[in-house]
Amino acid sequence: MIRRPISLRLRLVLMLLGIAAVLAIVLYFTVRTVADQAAEATQDGVLGAATLAIAESLQGGDEGVSVDLPYEAFSILGSISADRVFYRIDAGQETLTGYADLPPPPEAGAAVTPVFYTSAYRDTEVRIAAVARMVLVARKPVPVLVMVAQTRQGQEAIAQRVAQRAAVVGLGSFALAAALSLLTAGGVIRPINRLADAVGRRGPQDLRAVDHPTPVELKPLITALNGFIARLRGAISRTETFIAEAAHHIRTPLATVRARAEIAMRQSKSEEMRETLRAVIRAVEESSRSAGQLLDHATVVARSDRLADEPVDLSKLVIAQAEAFCPTADLKDLTIAVETEPVTVQGDRALIEAALRNLIDNAIKYSPPDSTVELTLVNGASARIEVADRGRGLSGQEQTRLTKRFARGENAGDVIGSGLGLTIVAEVAAAHGGRFELTEREGGGTCARLYLPSA
Amino acid sequence: MRAALLALGLILGLTRVAVGFTVEEEVTFPATGAEARELTILSTTDTAVMRPLIEAFQSRNPDVTIHYTVANSQEVFAAINDEGAKFDLVISSAMDLQMKLANDGFASAWRSGPTAALPDWARWQDRLFAFAQENVVLITSRRGLEGLSLPQTRRDLIEMLRDHPEMFEGRIGTYDPELSGAGYLFATQDARQSDSFWRLAEVMGGLAPRLYTSSNEMITDLKQGRLVLAYNVLGSYAGPRLAGDADATVIELEDHTLTLLRTGLVPENAGNPLLGGAFLDFLLGSEGRGLLRDKAGLPPIDEAALASGPHLRPMRLDPGLLVFLDAIKRRGFLEEWSSALNRD
Fold first, then answer.
1. Measured CA distances, A360 to A175, A332, A386 (Å)
2. pTM value?
3. ipTM
4. Do B329 and A153 touch (CB under 8 A)?
5. Quick check: A96 and B328 CB within 8 A?
6. Cβ A281 vs Cβ A258: under 8 Å
7. H-helix segments, chain B
8. How many CB atoms lie within 10 A of CB B271?
9. Which of B102, B124, B326 is opposite residue A97, by nearest beta carbon?
10. Among A68, A84, A124, beta carbon nearest to B332
């Protein structure tokens, strides 16, 4: 059985409601008990006073005990509520007057101050006050016991009213506590929600440590999160280092092989040998380009999660790349025509450079001899780098297919290529929030456009 | 036909009484429609007084046969308290005895709109309900007073009796508290209200008063010239009977005039408590109140009437009424009364 995790807020609200319910119930019973005791004390007071008043009217004498029941003593018993009244006066062992079956006090020895007890009598329950007195009859002391009983319907009515009020008070305090507990739960959860928001809002490349102000209770979580971020950053930087190392280790030996092969070719007398060496040089060139593109691609993938965010002067970059490709272009008698205006974008210089390099490389590769590769940089809503050639065009192939990894045009079988170039360009455009377009050019050839958001 | 039915009822009624208490009168009012229910009422109030109310109740409830039994207040009390007689409604003018019945658990609770509308002083719990308030008055004969000014307070009365003993010798009437429950109640309540009662008793004692057990006898003797004045007479009887009499005057003494509450209760052992309660509700309702005032001559419960008479002292329906029912207290009071009247 899997327990579904309960929301913190719900858990908090439920617990607070539970506490409020318990407190409300305690409040209800406290109010009831106190009120009941107060009502009983009041009625006992009146009952005791009536009993004492009767006891004080007791008189001795030679003929026996006499009593003059005070009218007001009885009348006052009806003043709080209309309750039934019973009384009994015992002198010695005999009942002098009143209700002879009224129960006497449970323990003998009723005192001068009234003793109170509750007892069943006739069809109801009564509260009885008893007072004992000694009265002189024919000079002998005779113990006299005065008992006055009263039903407690009035007190029950009061208790019922009090119970109703207490219930209202209890429910009211519960409702108030419920409202407050909702507010409290909201207040307690808020820092957690804020932290979650702050972490969630971060961009994909944001690997800074979280330093959002948080309550002490969340500090361990933040510490753990920051440790995790630090490890991730370390892993990424190790990958980059590996890529750089790999590039170095592959390119350098290839360059050495190529240099040696060229020297050997020049020194060789045999046409056959020269032909062989030329093939070696082409193969090495191919390997070098492929390695370069693979590393470019890996760099793009590695860096796109955390792009450098720096101003990049595109015109400078375009001119520099055009110059860098001049020797290669000369070999094919190609002209590179550059047209720029000053444009600066925010982005990762290395990636933009890699994209540009691949675009120009592609254009040169597919251009027929004696043609012009046009390199244009235009500023606008977004910066646009355009590389146009007079090559064999796209032959109606889908751009999406061409920008897939390792996919090559069907009409490019005779040209060296890994199929990674356009993929790199498209990925760089996406990483910068720009876009890449490949269109057929009027009059033959291809026009590649890379849009990058202006700074 | 009606008289014949009534006579039959009387005979049936009298044969029905096999209980130990003394019945003065028992009348059966047969159902005017098909009989379905029986209502038995035990009352101290004369049948003649209650007849309009009983008949009005029957015209509303034609299926009810009513057995109306009249006894004096002590017998009414004894019937319920000692003999466990079964009645659906007990009506009595003896507030103290009614209070004792209710207090001792012989009355069942009855809750209804009309009982809830009663003022607090006219009911006790949900068990005892007053439906008429009657002032206890002094009645005098102008002829007998020979031009003396009418007394307005007990002090006036005492002075008059002292100053002219020859006029009042043997011609004063009042209740005998030893024999009459109402007389005992009036005397004890008077004694509670003021000390002037005892002085009055002493003065009357020197004038050989005649002692009665009913207001009606006192009124008759006053009308016939045997009495000059009668003290503590029920105003509800004196008013109607002396209304056309130019000689008689009804006086509500200004120092205090007691107001008696005529009460009803539904006994705990009632065979048909719903019907007893329904008759009680009828007495308290607007139709019953109108009939009580206009036909029965009993003033219905009216808070405004009490408020407009500051001298009126309604006897309180509370356990204080039990005090004078106490045997020792009663003995002591009657001894004091006798010695005040010099009867020993």
1. 75, 14, 10
2. 0.68
3. 0.83
4. no
5. yes
6. yes
7. 2-16, 47-60, 73-81, 95-103, 113-116, 142-145, 154-163, 165-168, 181-193, 196-205, 215-223, 235-242, 273-284, 286-291, 303-308, 327-340
8. 13
9. B326
10. A68
B101-129 residue pLDDT tens: 999 999 999 999 999 999 999 999 899 99
Q: Say yes or no to pLDDT of B184 above 90.
A: yes
Q: Which residue from A71, A78, A86 is facing B192, i.e. has the nearest CB?
A: A71
Q: Where are the domains of chain B?
A: 2-133+261-315, 134-259+323-340
8 Å CB contact of B104 and A84: yes
User: Are B323 and A122 an interchain contact pair (Cβ–Cβ within 8 Å)?
Assistant: no
According to the model, what pLDDT value does residue A417 have? 61
Query: Half-sphere exposure (CA, 13 Å, Cβ side) for A1?
Result: 1
What is the second-level CATH architecture of the domain A308-455?
2-Layer Sandwich (3.30)
**Looking at domain B2-133+261-315, which CATH architecture does it have?**
3-Layer(aba) Sandwich (3.40)
CB contact under 8 A, A122 and B104: yes
Question: Chain centroid to CA B295: how far?
Answer: 17
Q: Which of A277-291, A426-440, B27-41 has the highest mean pLDDT?
A: B27-41
Residue range A214-224, pLDDT digits in tens = 888 888 988 99
Q: Which residues are CB-contacts of A397 (< 8 A; sequence separation ≥ 6)?
A: A409, A410
pLDDT, average across residues B130-151? 93
Mean pLDDT computed over every residue of chain A: 85
The two structure tokens encoding residue B327:
């045997």
CB contact under 8 A, A84 and B105: yes
Cα gap A71→B248, rounded to integer Å? 36
From the CA of B79, how many Å to the nearest CA of chain A?
A: 19
Chain B residues close to A74, C-beta within 8 Å: 318-320, 322-323
- The average pLDDT across B181-204 equals 92
| Tens digit of each residue's pLDDT (9 = 90 or more) over A361-381 | 888 888 888 888 888 998 888
